Automatic annotation (TrEMBL):
It catalyses: [GlcNAc-(1->4)-Mur2Ac(oyl-L-Ala-gamma-D-Glu-L-Lys-D-Ala-D-Ala)](n)-di-trans,octa-cis-undecaprenyl diphosphate + beta-D-GlcNAc-(1->4)-Mur2Ac(oyl-L-Ala-gamma-D-Glu-L-Lys-D-Ala-D-Ala)-di-trans,octa-cis-undecaprenyl diphosphate = [GlcNAc-(1->4)-Mur2Ac(oyl-L-Ala-gamma-D-Glu-L-Lys-D-Ala-D-Ala)](n+1)-di-trans,octa-cis-undecaprenyl diphosphate + di-trans,octa-cis-undecaprenyl diphosphate + H(+). It is found in: Cell inner membrane. The keyword ATP-binding does not apply. Residues 603-682 form the Penicillin-binding C-terminal domain. It comes from the Bacteria. Pfam families: BiPBP_C, Transgly, Transpeptidase. In the N-terminal section; belongs to the glycosyltransferase 51 family. It comes from Chitinimonas viridis. InterPro entries: Beta-lactam/transpept-like, Glyco_trans_51, Glycosyltr_51/Transpeptidase, Lysozyme-like_dom_sf, PBP_1c, PBP_C, PBP_transglycosylase, PCN-bd_Tpept. Residues 38-208 form the Glycosyl transferase family domain. Its main location: membrane. It is a single-pass membrane protein. This is peptidoglycan glycosyltransferase.
Amino acid sequence: MTGLVLLGLAACSVPPPPTSVQQAWRSSEALLLDRHGQPLQQTRVDKQARRLAWVPLKQLPAELGSSVLAAEDRRFQEHGGVDWLALFGAARDTAGGDTRGASTITMQLAGLLDDSLSPADGRRSLWQKIMQMRVAGHLEADWNKPEILEAYLNLAPFRGELVGIDAVSRVLLGKAPSELDQRDSLILASLLRAPNARPERVAQRACALALSLPRPPACPALRAYTLAVLNAPQQPLPGPADSPELLPQLQPQAGQQLRTTLDARLQRQVRAQLREQLAQLYGRNVRDAAAVVLDNASGEVLAWVGTPGAGGSARFVDGVLAPRQAGSTLKPFLYGLAMERQLITAATLLDDSPVALATPAGQYVPQNYDRSFRGPVSVRTSLASSLNIPAVRTLLLVGLDDFHGRLRQLGLQLDRPAAHYGYGLALGSAEVRLIDLANAYRSLANGGQLSPWRLVAAAPVPGRQVSDRATSWLVGDILADRSARAAAFGFDNALATPVWAAVKTGTSKDMRDNWAVGYTARHTVAVWVGNADGEAMWDVSGVSGAAPAWRAIIALLGQPGEPPGPPAGLEQRTLRYLPAVEAPRQEYFLAGTATDTVELTGNQPGPAIVYPAEGMIVALDPDIPAARQRIWLRASNAEGLHWSLDGQQLGRADTDLAWTPNPGKHQLALQDAQGRTKRQVIFQVRGQYGR
């Protein structure tokens, strides 16, 4: 401690009572506690000096007190603050050229209590010395000897930045103050006069000091021990380190014990699960993971793991806060918005077939994860099975700007305009933070009501209704529907939990990010795996990457509570499709949108040329041999049709066809068996062979 500033000390010379000094003591460390008051994270905040706890004198071994008094103040018990015999002796020796001090422990304490009494250039002025003696007299009058010695041992600098007996014992010697033995006491007492003296000099003092004790240790052994201690690296503190990620968020003050909303036991378990999942993914180029657990009702964060720790590639990158591409995890909010506006229902059939969309950057041709197409598919199946093309078609219904606006309303920090993301926004081209995504899913669990997440206990903040309550419930019902999910994932997968849970996975472009986000009736859990540096993973999907850890964390949470029942504004019908593109089922509808039958009609999308598009210009690469270059002809809804290029038949159009291009303008057509043209485009190939 650099000193406790006492107002008016130079004028009145009255020190504070010992209780005030102890209360003013501040450790250089901060301690985060969990929601139950259990230690969670200890860290150093004050970088000027290293201070730990205040240690009562009765918890210190008697050898320490004896050694300190022998080294610094042999007549401590007899004098009244100033040892006049020692003072006169020091004056005599100084006059003879042998400079030495004669400050008692009480006088040294006076200097520790008031910065104005500290020497400016290594020596106190005459006025400072007089004031120091005066304050020492007041200390002796107002304090008892044990209180003086206790304060001195807690305030004195011992070595380097180590201040106080607790810090020097634990960091220099690696033990608690109560465990100090005679050798330790001799070393610490020898450091008080010159804390930064060379180890050999400290060893000499310790040996000389030992001679004043009744049963001194042998000097060679004491010297060896002293040199070993002072030359060794400082000992790490044994404090808890379960949530280092929270320190930048909470920024605790030195000496503060801050209670958080986290559960220490769950925090450790979640970190262990992430490490275990990374071990399972060994060999697939996956090094990092993050997870967060929220209480649905309060928004309190129960677990926050931004990096798995050992083995992670970026220990200072908090994966809970690092923006990453969201992948398919944004789809629930897209379908929810479309259903809320009654543009679709959960029973609506969407066309899962190839589509090409013109954008300023060229043609946008979305693909499903498995590169297959399912034709007419319901909204329920499209969302639960995470089909991409139906999502893009839904975005066309909703509108890019409106979907972008809804995501921002949900607290997702999209810092670019909607046009920047384009149609890829339906498939999660935007970067989001794990904590924000988790809180957005929490709003679904809370019936469309969004409120802030929090790390410390505080008065609840009223939520705001972002999405319709009935629609939010319906989205959750779809995300919890194992039958609808089975079309893409099968029934036995990492998303299947023994309790009711709504969950969505997502994988970003080139497998750089992998997500699993979902909720039970009581908790929301979000998990991300990937690489902090953005390097792609190898053969990792949503089900194999983040989902196993998500499911394990859900299991850790215990009783999830009763699944939410349908709110007002929904009605249930027995639904069937004609023809039976999907099996009959019980389906929920927003009031006024219910139907018993969905029938395919002739109004379904007709054949279309997906690639190449009308007016497209294809440039040949002169560095690639002509025989190796191909243009893939691709159509949708083209059963029974064939390709015709410049009047020449090429083959069936219901599968992709590779064509070796040649320069010039070309007319490509879809024709039926009678040669009638159903669709056609004109495109151009530029470039010359032979280079």
